[in-house]
Amino acid sequence: MMPTLDGVTTIRVLQKITPDVKIIAMSGSNDNEEKIKAIECGVKDLLDKPFTANVLLKALHQLFNND
Known about the structure:
By secondary structure, the protein is mainly alpha-helical.
């Protein structure tokens, strides 16, 4: 858990600052409602913790090569 803002609030703040920001979210929570909210906010990918370096690299590759 993040100390001040939850993940969805952080996503919204980042999008206000930079509307075209690309976000890959990650979660160790089983709260599907929060994951759905993140996806509805425009998150490009959501990684479940724990994940491997290869999974992260694949997500980054897809994020930056699908413009």
